[in-house]
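Extended Data, panel c. Modelled sequence:
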Amino acid sequence: MSMNVKKGDAVKVIAGVDKGKTGQVLAVDTKSQRVVLQGSDLKTVKCFVKPRNAQEKGGIIEREASINVSNVMIICPSCNSATRVAHNVSVDENGKKIKTRICKKCGASLDVAASKAAKTAKKAKKTATKAKKTTDVEEN
């Protein structure tokens, strides 16, 4: 089952001990339908860590606790409010279908930051391969 929450999203807790607090999604587990949130005032769990080698220390550490995905709502970056998620399927110039998440309140895309980052990474990769090809051609 797919979830509307992705890594890096800003979310608001709507139920449970941390109700009303906001945080950023660090990890998503689709199998157990849980997310791990980063925030200074969010729930943490104390865990015992064994040392893996002689140089490493063991001990009790605190880490972020996971929360059920039904207890969080995505915060829209344009209207800055917790919102439900709609999906829009569009076709790009190559005929490929693109599914985007949309805010139910204002209609803005929730995938803007992720898509911009993916495009810049793709451009950087292309320029790196072009530079490598030109240096290989010049050497021969």
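The mean pLDDT is 83. This feature is highlighted in the accompanying rendering.
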